[in-house]
Predict the 3D structure of the following.
Amino acid sequence: AVVSTQSTGIYVGNLPETSCKQCLLYQLFSPYGAIASVKAMEPKNNTTDNFTPGSWFGFVNYVEQAGADMAVSTLHKSTLDGQMLKVVYKTNKWDRMKTKNNMFNL
């Protein structure tokens, strides 16, 4: 059997403004598989004067890889309440730093 190297964790960016973002994440992602956890994150410096629509984000962790795969392939760049969602596999900070640094190594 082939084992996927992707994560069962998903990053969801550009969430629309709603009273219960964790509820929204659960409702949006549960059709694709069993969810282990959901967490909505408030953007830094979120004040009335400094709020950017779509700056809320969150994380969804699936029990199985198949759910994560289906959610990413189906929901990435989909539109919710007029905002295009960013739905990608969650990576750790070290991997993101390596990728960013490699962009400048020609």
In short: The first helix runs from residue 21 to 29. The chain has a mean pLDDT of 82.
